[in-house]
Amino acid sequence: MRPSASQLPFETTLSGSFHGISRSRAVQRGDDIDAERILLIDHRSSLDESFSEGLEQHGFLVDIASGDDAITNSAVAGDYALILLNSMRPGLAGLNAVQSVRRRTDAPLLVLTDRDSVAARMAGLELGASDYLVKPFSLFELLARVKVLARHPNTHRHINISLHPQPVLQLADLELNERTAKCSRDGIELGLTKREFALLLVLLRNQGRVMSRQKLARRVWNMDLDETSNAVDVAILRLRSKLDAPFEAKLLHTVRSQGYVLEQRSGS
C-alpha cells in the first residue's frame, strides 16, 4: 500500500525539480512489476532524475522522453497509466504539444506549467489535457493529482483507442512491437527470449537515458541486485550478441561505472 499524504516524510515545493530526495530513501516498491507506469515528457530534460525519483519513491514507475522530438517518439503510444507533460513552451507551441500528445494516446494527461493563464489552461483542457498544475506546487499536491488521474483513467480519456498507433517502439532500424512481442532490426527478426525482450523493452522505453544495473534488475527481474552478481551484465552480453553483433551500427552502449544506454550514436 502506498503512503497517504499524511504519511509522507516531508513536503517540498516544485519550481523546476525536487530537492532533498536521496536514492537511498527511495521506496523499492516503485519498481514492482505491478506498479503504475508514468511517462514524463520533458523537452529540456530539466526534471529528469530528481523528478522521476520523487515519483518512484511513492510507488510509480517513470519513463522519460526528452528532446525536441519527445512527443513524436513512438514510446508515447505505450501502455501508461498517466502522461506528465512538463510544458515550458509559451502560447500556441504549448497548446500544440498538448494536442500532439492527445492524438497519440488516450491516457490521462497532466500538464505541468509555469504560466498561470486561465485562458491558456482552458484552451489546453479543450484540446484534451486532463488537468493542469501551475508551478510552484507542493509534493503533496502533485502526488494527489497523479494518484487520482492514474487510478481513475476512464473519466479522463478523450479518444477512441482504435485511432491510436500500434505500440511499436523504434530507434534507428530497430523496431519492437509490444503486442506481438516481436523485435527486428532492418527487417530481420532478432529471435529474443522473453527475458531479453523484457530487458530491451525497458532500455527502449528509456532510450538515451543511462540505466543502472540496479534499476535494470528491479524492472526486469523484480529484485535487488547483489553487489557481486553479474546477472545483468550476462543478460546484456546475450542481448548485445543478437541486437548489435550482426549489424554495423551499434545501439547498446556501456557507460562506465553507471550502467547501460540504448541510443543511436554517430560513427557507431
Automatic annotation (TrEMBL):
Species whose genome carries this gene: Variovorax gossypii
Domain OmpR/PhoB-type: 166-264
Pfam families according to UniProt: Response_reg (PF00072), Trans_reg_C (PF00486)
CDD domains the record matches: trans_reg_C
Cellular component aspect of the GO annotation: cytosol; protein-DNA complex
Response regulatory domain segment(s): 37-150
Name this polypeptide is given: Response regulator transcription factor
Entry keywords, A to Z: DNA-binding, Phosphoprotein, Transcription, Transcription regulation, Two-component regulatory system
Keyword Transcription regulation listed: yes
GO BP of this protein: regulation of DNA-templated transcription
Stored InterPro entries: CheY-like_superfamily (IPR011006), OmpR/PhoB-type_DNA-bd (IPR001867), Sig_transdc_resp-reg_C-effctor (IPR016032), Sig_transdc_resp-reg_receiver (IPR001789), WalR-like (IPR039420), WH-like_DNA-bd_sf (IPR036388)
GO molecular function: phosphorelay response regulator activity; transcription cis-regulatory region binding
Residue spans binding DNA: 166-264
